[in-house]
Amino acid sequence: MALIRETDYGTPKRISDTLVTLEIDGKPVTVAAGTSVMRAAAEAGVQVPKLCASDNLEAFGSCRLCLVEVEGRRGTPASCTTPVEQGMKVKTQSPKLAKLRMGVMELYASDHPREMLYGSGNGQTEFQEMVEIVGLREVRYGHTGKNHLHSDKDESNPYFTFDPAMCIVCSRCVRACEEVQGTFALTIDGRGFASVVSAGDKPFIESECVSCGACVQACPTNSLVEKTYIQKGAPDRSVVTTCAYCGVGCSFKAELTNNEVVRMMPFKDGKANHGHSCVKGRFAWGYATHKDRITKPMIRAKFTDPWREVSWEEAIGHAASEFKRIQAKYGRDSIGGITSSRCTNEETYLVQKMIRAAFGNNNTDTCARVCHSPTGYGLKTTLGTSAGTQDFDSVEAADVIVIIGANPTDAHPVFASQMKRRLRKGARLIIVDPRRIDLVKSPHVQADYHLPLLPGTNVAIINALAHVVVNEGLVNEAFVKERCDVAAFEQWRKFIAEERNSPESLEHIIGVPAADVSAAARLYATGGNAAIYYGLGVTEHSQGSTMVMGMANLAMATGNMGRKGVGISPLRGQNNVQGSCDMGSFPHEFPGYRHVSDSAVREQFEKAWHVSLQSEPGLRIPNMIDAAVDGTFKGIYVQGEDIVQSDPNTQHISTGLAAMECVVVQDLFLNETASYAHVFLPGSSFLEKDGTFTNAERRISRVRKAIEPLGGLADWEATMALSNAMGYPMHYSHPSEIMDEIARLTPTFAGVSFEKIDQLGSVQWPCNDKAPEGTPVMHIGGFVRGKGMFMITEFVPTDERTSGRFPLILTTGRILSQYNVGAQTRRTDNNVWHDMDVLEIHPSDAENRGIKEGDLVSLASRAGDITLPARISERMQPGVVYTTFHHAMTGANVVTTEFSDWATNCPEYKVTAVQVQLARHMSEWQEHYLETRKQTTRIEKESTAND
Amino acid sequence: MVHMANQIAAFFSSYPTEQAVAGVADHLQKFWEPRMRKQITQYVADGGAGLHDLAIEAVKRLH
User: Fold this and answer.
1) Nearest-CA distance from B39 to chain A in Å?
2) Would an 8 Å CB–CB cutoff place A460 in contact with chain B?
3) Fold classification of A808-935 (topology level)
4) What is the per-residue pLDDT for A619?
5) What pLDDT does residue A944 have?
6) Which of A132, A315, A382, B20 to pair with A771, CA 20 to 30 A apart?
7) Rounded Cα gap, residues B51 and B39, in angstroms
8) d(CA B5, CA B40)
9) Residue A453 DSSP symbol
10) Residues of chain A with C-beta less than 8 angstroms from the C-beta of B7
11) Do B4 and A902 touch (CB under 8 A)?
């Protein structure tokens, strides 16, 4: 595919019921009222020259290049700031306009490097295009006058440079930082000739800049430009694909030259991101070709042996032979597998299919077990389907935004920017989080209520909020009567109205003044469209599923369901968590969330797959590990997950894996789980394969192959080979055939195909005869389960309690620059911002322990202990400490325990009783880790290896 | 296993007894792998020490 250049209409699209017809250069055009003349011209196919305008920014009117003439009016107004009027007649070309534009460009050019005035082909900047369009050949003023040509470059950011010599001070970067990203890190310092783009009078790297790339994308001169663009030159082709980081699922153009990625550019038509990006998707893709990539299959007899490189045939043959041997010796149920939320839907589907059909059991699970499994359980129970109710654009119709246990600016930054835009326009904000996240107060955004509850009291606070709604007569009785199971509602109403659920009664448990809780409840119930967004701070608790149901109760009780601007939206962690769950990765469900005990569904799969299937649920990941420790589970296939680093109680996970006889890991790198593996299969990055990802809004988007798999096979091909070697034949020639099979077998995907996604850009399930183009907002007119089901949500405190020995509560999370276990981002320059996990501790807790900023401290729980540097921070309340799990060496999950959600076994990462003390050296576990890691990652290179 | 079963029982404990027992039993049947159900069934047969009353009643209904 050639390089894609999207049309820039100059100013944002306007929506209005009133249409206006005008004439531009003799062409009639009809547009919505409020549209600019510049945009109307573009829609009529007439490109007005411009430099300071872009259709993702409000009109600014500074460059004076887009001047036009309007019949019957004096002067030459800027087309970007002039709204259309009925009957208007506009001329965009005339000798007068040409002269004016030439004059403007001459002035710009006189203070621009001469060698940068002319470009050609793919490398041409917008500025160079304008030079060409106005026909500028010579600058009457010369280049020797006062200028900015010798200004210092700012190369401090690892991903882009800023060269003031090329800057025309059009403010597009400043406005992009404000309007698109919402960070307000950039400004124009000085006046007149002294005007200069500034990141707060400091280098970019030291500024508030979050490296989202919006300013670079906006720059018309390459004053701000990607370093890879400078190093590799202009790209010559684009592949539109989907980001492999968080659950926002941003659409990108991978721009390449010579089969090498030059840069990742956010795609304007991407319906999840609308042309925006974050530092991870935009810049942190270098891991795909990092030297640590393992591109040859490897095997070894014991995990303490060095790896031996072998051919794909030998590796697959060995794995299949071992799995068959184990099943013959220990039984059919002694092996299983884990699907990956970083792999495509098609790959995930194949892994669970192989486990059910080739392994002959239901021992399949996925990493959603440790993040959003309570979402699936809670939303299916109350609403009827295991997914969020809204699309991202719904937030634009929200009047009250409630964020519970999520940190969107760090974990879902592109959606956070969209949310901030809505907040700047006046939506109210309630934040329920123990930690003072950025959105509590950031430029032009301030929460109306921040309810800093104590970790582990989510259900108490949701009950207290609901209590206020019920007892103050704020229930939407008509909605409940029409849309919900009334008997279940009355049962719930009686429970929630009890005094023990009042904000006053729960104040000492929640740790938030009752008055604030009551006021927030009133705002949620009466403030117009109210939308709940939540994250792992909701799910990763012993009552994660209860909390999800509690939020659904609250939304149903107030009628905040079934239209734009309302609903409950889980912010999914990994790029394809939603998809991996949809594809039947859980041990109790076939694709489409249908229980394995449902004989009609099972027969459908048996008929299609030509095999007999089990009717009982299989083992979940923690059950597999427990069974391995008990000696009844002996083999596992792990595709694209790192359970040793990501799952709780690392030492228990390691013990379980070490007890197995065949561990097969398929990954890009020798991850921590691979330390216990006997077979390693090279994984393929998102750039190396075709398929689809499904984001947090149920949006299915295409992943398109940009380069060939470095290991020779895409992940779906490797799974297929393993299945064939196990004796269960699979013969797909392209992932589109796998999606066709999914569509045939899954009612909510019945209308999905690669062809349809290519045609529509993306599609949100359910997509079937009833909704052939997908479903942006669910439960309109009725819930999927029929009547909405209220569930009683008794607050049951976690069994993880603080004590004299472990007096603090640890809660874990993630930050902007790193992603999950860090396997990808740690192998990029994102380490500039975060090269180690640190422990955030409140000043009073630190002072009590004699801890100062940067001190090495030990973090100990009943599960284990680690050491890491301390960061004194008032983001945490006293008694609560916080860290991340991005670095394997830190071993944050050595400390977390095996306590988990009652319904789904999602680990309680957010509540661990700990003690923190000054430390002098690393912990015993960390010393052991360093020692064994060296041993288990040795690779014996064999020149005879045949790949 | 006892801890997990008791957590499930605790969730359903606010419902009327019959509804609660049915809820716990349904959950174990739908989400626990057969060998786990077998183990807890044996545990109840051996006296069920430490198990919530609702869990004991629910386990008796497993098949």
Assistant:
1) 12
2) no
3) Barwin-like endoglucanases (2.40.40)
4) 97
5) 47
6) A382
7) 13
8) 9
9) P
10) 542, 796, 902
11) yes
Instruction: Give me the count of residues in chain A.
Output: 947
CATH H-level, domain A373-570: superfamily: Dimethylsulfoxide Reductase, domain 2 (3.40.228.10)
Q: Thinking of the domain A298-369+576-757, which architecture would CATH place it in?
A: 3-Layer(aba) Sandwich (3.40)
Question: Is residue A947 predicted with pLDDT exceeding 80?
Answer: no
Q: Which residue of A has its CA nearest to B5?
A: A902
Q: Which residue on chain B is closest to A621 by alpha carbon?
A: B33
Q: Which of A579, A622, A647 is nearest to A386 (CA)?
A: A579
Count CB atoms within 10 A of the CB of residue A874.
Answer: 11
pLDDT in tens, A856-896: 999 999 999 999 999 999 999 999 999 999 999 999 999 99
Could you report the per-residue pLDDT of A202-257, keeping only the tens digit for each?
Answer: 999 999 999 999 999 999 999 999 999 999 999 999 999 999 999 999 999 999 99
Q: Is B35 on the interface with A (CB under 8 A)?
A: yes
| CA–CA dist A723, A732 (Å, integer) | 12
> What is residue A114's predicted lDDT score, i.e. its pLDDT?
87
The residue of chain A nearest to residue B27, with distances taken between CA atoms, is A903
Structure tokens at A866: 């680690």
Interface test with B, best of A902, A905, A908 (most B CBs within 10 A): A902
Q: Would you call A792 and B15 a contact, using CB atoms and an 8 Å cutoff? A: yes
Mean pLDDT, to the nearest integer, of A570-587?
A: 95
Give A942's pLDDT tier (boundaries 50, 70, 90): low
Q: How sure is the predictor about A170, in pLDDT bands with cuts at 50, 70 and 90?
A: very high
Q: Residue A2 has which token pair?
A: 């050639």
Interaxial angle between packed helices A715-726 and A312-330, expressed in degrees from 0 to 180 and rounded to the nearest 10:
50
How close does chain A come to B47, measured CA to CA in Å? 22
Which residue did the predictor score with more confidence, A944 or A824?
A824
pLDDT one-digit tens code per residue, B1-11: 999 999 999 99
What ipTM was predicted for this assembly?
Answer: 0.98
Residue ranges in A864-946 assigned as alpha helix (H): 892-895, 924-936
Rounded CA separation A173/A180 (Å) = 10
Ramachandran angles phi, psi of A569, nearest 5°:
-125, 110
Mean pLDDT of A788-803: 96
Tokens of A896: 């977390």
pLDDT digits over A523-553, tens only?
A: 999 999 999 999 999 999 999 999 999 999 9
Q: How far is CA A760 from CA A196, A271, A665, A754, in A?
A: 42, 10, 36, 10
Nearest CA to A385 among A781, A785, A771? A785
| B5 close contact with A: CB closer than 8 A | no
Q: What is the 3-state secondary structure (H, E, C) of A277-310?
A: CCHHHHHCCHHHHCCCCCCCCEECCCCCCCEEEC
* Range A19-134: architecture per CATH: Roll (3.10)
Cβ A264 vs Cβ A255: under 8 Å: yes
Per-domain boundaries in chain A:
19-134, 298-369+576-757, 373-570, 808-935
| Closest residue in chain B to residue A491, using alpha carbons only | B15
What are the chain B neighbours of A620 within 8 Å (beta carbons)? Answer: 33
Which chain B residues are Cβ-neighbours of A798 within 8 angstroms? none
Q: Share the mean pLDDT of chain A.
A: 96
- pLDDT by residue (tens digit) across A717-739? 999 999 999 999 999 999 999 99
Alpha carbon B1 to its chain centroid, in Å, reads 10
Please give the average per-residue pLDDT across A95-105, as a whole number: 96
Encoding tokens for residue A396? 């634009």
Count other Cβ atoms within 10 Å, centred on residue A173: 25
